[in-house]
Structures are given as structure tokens and as C-alpha cells.
Specification:
- The complex is a heterodimer of chains A (346) and B (351).
- With 346 residues, chain A is an all-alpha fold.
- Chain A has one domain: ABC transporter involved in vitamin B12 uptake, BtuC (Orthogonal Bundle), CATH 1.10.3470.
- In chain A, helix 4 packs parallel to helix 6, helix 5 runs antiparallel to helix 11 and helix 8 crosses helix 9.
- Chain A starts with a helix and ends with a helix.
- Chain B has 2 domains: 186 residues, Rossmann fold (3-Layer(aba) Sandwich); 139 residues, Response regulator (Rossmann fold), CATH 3.40.50.
- In chain B, 39% of the residues lie in helices and 20% in strands.
- In chain B, the strands form 2 sheets. Chain B has an 8-stranded mixed β-sheet with strand order 2-1-3-4-5-13-12-11, sandwiched between helices.
- In chain B, strand 1, helix 2 and strand 2 form a beta-alpha-beta unit.
- The radius of gyration of chain B is 20 Å and the shape is elongated.
- The N terminus of chain B is likely disordered.
- Classes of the chains: A mainly alpha (346), B alpha/beta (351).
- At the A-B interface, helix 3, helix 6, helix 7, helix 11 and helix 13 of A face helix 1, strand 7, helix 7 and helix 8 of B.
């Protein structure tokens, strides 16, 4: 009797452990950590220099601007939108800080004020177009990509601004401890704050609800358009901060910065690789940050593997495709249709 | 230099920017038609660089404007807002309509403007390219910045001076299809083979004419090739990115950076010791030469294979046929031997 109960309990525990383990393995964050570990291990085996602190620090710093942009991108995508204008927002923010930094020795904290304002205004413009004017996000932000890109040219006057005070470069390139750059700390703090807001506040959960099913969210009293507006503001502000981080890390900026290095593609790639569904409602920002780190590590590994850099854009594309293929739930619309049928049956 | 230093913006073909370019073209067109009413009719010469706002082109214009009055030239400076070949075509059309005598240009594309330039030549307008050529049939003369072999020799000599005659070096280029960068790389390889056979080129990185990509590439090269003694960036963005990489990694002075580019955007790196040398030509004097060639071409005094004198700049030759070593094509005038910028003289140049 007792023995039978004991056996049953053990079985139950084993089942729970197995389920928990199964869930963890399916978690995109865990998959990414494993993938990063594999790339690092293979590269190190081939060339031990791969894990020298300088290289680790560089890969993490290089991932930071993309990671910060992808945090904002993730918030937008979770609400079933997309923001194609993050590249020129990053560029405009960086340009508008770079001029006073070069000419007036503007302190970084004042620069932060500028990029927050730039991100707020440009993000709000995107938000209005999508939530008030009801233009589909892909068209609205494609249009502002063009408009902001033109503005960036006008602001930069076709110049290259490169004589930035050392304080910026120190923030963008120095380590807290060997191998861990300051900009990674900033990225991590931003990611944790946004992750907390998404998970633990009404507004955060509303973003998921809107992405899952906007009509249902509306019926349950969520101010859908206000939530959608907010996601673009968040994305704009984070793209602005990304601009400041970019400026600190790269040390110069010009009229095509951001667009020229494809940060739009990279931010979306990091978001998708991080496990956020393009169809909204599923995913999170921690995955996106890991996605950005994974991209940076994988692209650096390509250089260490002596693969010519011509292959880099192809590498990004292949990683995106692999991320989609490895996500069995990527066909989310099917799931949603089922839900809707179930709903109507009720 | 064409695809390198001067195509910052080639990727930006946004509608908004195009609208700005069109507007700029219209405005300048209106402005110039009112400016060209002189008593003794001057030679009307237009200067159309790849885009507005680049220090190297501004320096060209400065030189041109210095000598133009003494040559009886009224010079008009106009260009698209981004490096857009289509934008240049619109400008050429308006210049033909205004009956300019000479059009000079640094082309955004070798073929796109060819039809409109041929139309200009049929209308009796002399067409002179400088810096970046079009196909030879679409222009009368081409002013090449410098001979491929001499600038390559300058860079390699400086690299050897820094890293020794058996140095491992890496090259940072722009894109894998950039004509001039490819020609420079070939010239560097040939010179190394002939003169410093122990120097080895370990890799060639491509920064895509983007500073952040060049930075990433250069840092990766430094980490994955620990014995590299010098990196040779041969494109404007590559110079900035490479010098930033070396200075960010604390390798200033340990890894040499010697390249091809203009000193103004790189003052910070000369000052902090991460950049040892740059090669280019005197952009102001090049602007002057463009005006001399414009005048002589207008007066039909330039002949293939002949020589001519350009005031204080000295004597020049018009190459009659293509030369693979220097890079000259038909009717090419090679402007100068390269100018070397170092920590000692970089502050004297504002381009």
C-alpha cells in the first residue's frame, strides 16, 4: 500500500522534472545560450584567441546598439506591429548629439536628454500614424523610414562628424571588468526594466493581449490604440538611446549612419532569433538581447573562421531563417484561428 | 577614390532625399541662370561633384574658384544632395538647357550619366571628368587623381617603415567590387612582390564604406590575426573605422594604421597616435587643374599624347592610350603624385 503510493509519488516527481526540463529546453532563451556556447566552444577550439577578454568585450559592445534597438522592436512586434524606422531614428539621435558634442563639448548626460527627446518625438509620430491614422505599421514606418532618412541627411548636412570628446569613446569602449563593457551593463539594465514592465504591469500585459487578439483585447476593456501608440514611443525612445550608444562605440556619425549598417534588419533579426513571434503576443525582450549577442558572436566567429566578410549579410539572413525553422510555433495564425473558432462556439 | 571616400550616401536613396536633390537642382539652376550675365562673355564652366557637403569636394571648389577669374571662367558649383547618379543626370540636363560651355564632374556611376553626357557633347559642350570617370566615350578628358602604382608604393613604403620588411599586414577595403580599391590592391601586391617579398597580406577586410562595419572588421582582424603589424585602410570610412578600432583596443602605436584618405575626419586619430599616415592628393590644387583643363578643352588646345602647362601647377601630359600600371585610359591626365599626411602636417589641411 505504502510502497505503491511511494512509487506513484516518485513517478509524479519524475514526470514534473521531465516536464520542467522539457519546457526549459523549448525556451528560446535557453536554446540561444546553448547556441552561443557551441559557437564560442568551436571557435575557441579552432583559435584560442577567440575567448581573450578583448574579443569577448568587443563582441558584447558591438551587440549593444542592436540589442537596445531590438528591445524596442520586440515591444512593437509583441503588439503585432513592426518598426522599420529605427535605423534613421538611431541616426538622427546620434547626429544631433554629435554636433554639440564636437563643437561645444556637450556632456553625455545632456546628450541622453537629446536622444530621449528625439526618440520620443519620432516614435510618437510613428504611433500616431499607426494608431490614429490607422495606417498599417509596415507602410507607416516604411514611409517614416524615408522621411526620417531625409531629415537625417538635412541635419548632418552631408558631413561626417568624427571629433567626439573622449568621454564618449570611453563609455562606448571601456570595460567594467575585463571582458564586460559598460555598454553591456546599460543594455542589460534597459532589458531588465522593460522585461519587468512587460511581465508585471497592466500595460505590459495589455501589449501581449493586443498582439494576441486585438478584438478580444478591445472587448475586455483594453484601450488598444493607446497601447499600440505606446509601443512605437517605446521603440522610438530605445532607438534614440541606441543612437547614443552607437555614437559612443563607433566614435563618428554621418548622414547615412544606421541605414548603412542595416540596423533595421539586425534589430528585426535579433527579435525573431530571440523567439518573439512576428504575429504578436508571444516572446520577450531577454530573448531579443540574447539574439543580438548571438548574431554578434556568430558574425565574429565567421571572421575567425576566415570566411570572407562578403558573406556577412548572407549569414544574418541564414540565421534568421534557421530561427524561424526551429520555431515550430512560427505558424501562429493557425493557433489563433482555432482559438477564434472556440470562442465563437461559446 | 571613386567608390571609396566619396560615396558616403550611395546607399541612401530615400524618396525624401531625392526630393531634396531635385529641389536643390532646381534652385541652383535658377540661381545660375541669373548669375551668368557678364559684359565680356566668360567661359561658363559647371562643377558637379558626386554630392554636396564633402570636405574633399569643397576643397576642389575652393581651388577652382581661386583661379577661375584669372582664366576668364565663371564657375558654377552644383551637385545632388546624396551621391545619386540620377540626381546628377537631372543637373546635366539643366546645364545643357542653359548652354554651359564646359561640364566637369566626378561621376556617381560610370554608365548611368553616359547618354546625357553624350547629348551634351553633341550640343558642343566639353565634358571633363575628374576623380571618378565615366565610360571614355561619354567624356572628352579625364583627370585621374593619382597613378595607381605611385599611391600603392607610398602606402607600402610607409607600412614597411612602421612594421619592418617582413611585416604581416591586412588591408581594409570598401566593397569587393570597388574598381579603384581593386586597382590599388593589385598595385600594392605587385609592388610587394617586386620590392618586399617578405611582407605578407594576411587578409582583406571589406568595410562596405560604412564606419561601423569597418570598425567591426578591423577589430575582428586584430583579434584573429594576433601577429598583424599594420592595417592599411584604403577607403574613407575604412580609415576612420580602423583607427577607431586600434585606438579603442589600446593598440595605438603597436599596430600601425597607414591608408588612403583625407586628414580632416581623422584629426583625432593622428593626435592620439593610432594613425601613422594617410595618402591623398592636394584637393585644392586639383580644383585649379580642373579649371585649366576646362579652359584649354574649350579652346580645343588639348590633344591626346600632347602636353600642356597649367600655371604654377607645372606641366601635364594627356595620355593617348590605356596604361594598366598607372590606371590611365584614353585622354587621361594624371593629376599628381600622392601627398603624405602625417602627425607632423595633418593640421595644415582642411579636407
Amino acid at each position: 500500500m505504502n510502497v505503491a503510493l511511494e512509487v506513484e509519488r516518485t513517478r509524479a516527481t519524475r514526470r514534473t522534472v521531465r516536464q520542467a526540463l522539457g519546457r526549459a529546453i523549448r525556451l528560446r532563451e535557453v536554446q540561444l545560450l546553448v547556441a552561443i556556447g557551441v559557437v564560442v566552444a568551436v571557435s575557441t577550439a579552432a583559435q584560442p584567441a577567440f575567448v581573450q577578454p578583448g574579443n569577448i568585450s568587443f563582441m558584447l559592445a558591438d551587440a549593444s546598439a542592436t540589442a537596445i534597438l531590438s528591445i524596442g522592436q520586440t515591444v512593437v512586434v509583441l503588439a503585432r506591429g513592426i518598426d522599420l524606422s529605427v535605423a534613421p531614428i538611431l541616426g538622427i539621435a546620434a547626429v544631433l548629439v554629435a554636433f554639440p558634442a564636437q563643437d561645444l563639448n556637450l556632456p553625455i548626460i545632456a546628450g541622453l536628454g537629446i536622444v530621449l527627446a528625439v526618440g520620443l518625438v519620432l516614435g510618437a509620430a510613428n504611433g500616431l500614424l499607426v494608431s490614429v491614422a490607422r495606417i498599417p505599421p509596415i507602410i507607416a514606418t516604411l514611409a517614416t523610414l524615408s522621411v526620417y532618412g531625409g531629415l537625417q541627411f538635412i541635419f548632418a548636412k552631408g558631413e561626417e562628424i568624427s571629433n567626439i570628446p573622449n568621454a564618449y569613446g570611453n563609455l562606448g569602449n571601456n570595460d567594467i571588468v575585463s571582458g564586460i563593457p559598460w555598454v553591456l551593463l546599460i543594455t542589460a539594465v534597459l532589458a531588465i526594466v522593460v522585461a519587468f514592465l512587460l511581465r508585471s504591469t497592466n500595460v505590459g500585459r495589455s501589449i501581449y493581449a493586443v498582439g494576441n487578439d486585438a478584438a478580444a483585447a478591445h472587448r475586455s476593456g483594453i484601450p488598444v490604440q493607446r497601447i499600440v501608440f505606446l509601443t512605437y514611443v517605446v521603440s522610438g525612445v530605445l532607438a534614440g538611446i541606441g543612437g547614443l550608444i552607437y555614437l559612443c562605440h563607433v566614435g563618428s556619425v554621418d548622414s547615412t549612419t544606421g541605414s548603412d549598417s542595416n540596423v533595421n534588419l539586425l534589430s528585426i533579426a535579433a527579435t525573431l532569433i530571440g523567439g518573439t513571434a512576428l504575429t504578436g503576443g508571444r516572446g520577450g525582450v531577454l530573448g531579443s538581447v540574447l539574439g543580438a549577442v548571438f548574431l554578434s558572436v556568430a558574425l565574429t566567429a565567421m571572421v575567425f573562421a576566415r570566411i570572407p566578410s562578403i558573406w556577412e549579410p548572407a549569414g544574418v539572413g541564414v540565421l534568421m531563417l534557421l530561427a524561424m525553422l526551429s520555431d515550430r510555433r512560427a505558424g501562429a495564425p493557425a493557433r489563433r484561428t482555432r482559438q477564434r473558432t472556440a470562442g465563437s462556439a461559446r | 577614390m571613386s567608390v571609396g571616400i566619396r560615396n558616403r550616401g550611395a546607399w541612401l536613396r530615400f524618396t525624401a532625399a531625392a526630393a531634396v536633390a531635385a529641389l536643390a537642382a532646381t534652385l541652383t539652376a535658377t540661381a545660375s541662370s541669373s548669375a551668368a550675365t557678364h559684359s565680356a562673355p566668360p567661359i561658363k564652366v559647371a562643377m558637379v561633384p558626386k554630392l554636396l557637403g564633402l570636405p574633399v569636394f569643397e576643397a576642389n571648389v575652393k581651388g577652382a574658384e581661386e583661379v577661375a577669374p584669372s582664366l576668364g571662367i565663371s564657375v558654377k558649383y552644383t551637385a545632388p544632395a546624396t551621391a545619386s547618379a540620377e540626381g546628377q543626370v537631372q543637373i546635366f540636363n539643366s546645364l545643357i538647357a542653359q548652354k554651359y560651355n564646359v561640364i566637369t564632374l566626378s561621376s556617381d556611376d560610370p554608365t548611368v550619366p553616359a547618354p546625357v553626357l553624350e547629348k551634351a557633347m553633341k550640343a558642343g559642350i566639353k565634358v571633363i571628368t575628374w576623380d571618378s570617370d565615366v565610360i571614355p566615350a561619354a567624356r572628352d578628358f579625364f583627370i585621374q587623381d593619382t597613378a595607381y602604382n605611385t599611391i600603392a608604393q607610398g602606402v607600402i613604403n610607409a607600412a614597411v617603415k612602421f612594421g619592418g620588411p617582413a611585416a604581416q599586414v591586412a588591408i581594409m577595403s570598401s566593397t569587393p567590387d570597388a574598381t579603384i580599391q581593386l586597382a590599388w590592391i593589385a598595385a600594392m601586391k605587385a609592388y610587394i612582390k617586386a620590392r618586399y617579398p617578405k611582407v605578407s597580406i594576411v587578409t582583406i577586410g571589406y568595410g562596405q564604406s560604412v564606419v561601423s562595419t569597418s570598425l567591426t572588421q578591423a577589430e575582428d582582424i586584430i583579434h584573429s590575426y594576433p601577429n598583424v603589424k599594420a592595417i592599411l585602410p584604403i577607403d574613407g570610412a575604412a580609415v576612420v573605422g580602423t583607427a577607431e578600432a586600434v585606438s579603442a583596443l589600446g593598440d595605438a602605436g603597436k599596430i600601425g594604421v597607414i591608408g588612403i584618405g583625407d586628414p580632416l575626419p581623422n584629426r583625432k586619430y593622428f593626435a592620439n597616435g593610432s594613425l601613422q599616415g594617410l595618402f591623398l592628393w592636394n584637393e585644392v590644387n586639383q580644383g585649379k587643374l580642373i579649371m585649366y583643363v576646362a579652359k584649354l578643352a574649350y579652346e580645343n588646345k588639348l590633344k591626346a599624347g600632347g602636353t600642356f602647362s597649367a600655371g604654377s601647377l607645372g606641366k601635364f601630359t594627356v595620355a593617348a592610350k590605356a596604361n594598366a600600371v598607372t590606371g590611365a585610359t584614353r585622354n587621361t591626365i594624371i593629376f599628381s603624385t600622392p601627398l603624405e599626411f602625417t602627425k607632423a602636417n595633418y593640421m595644415r589641411y582642411d579636407f
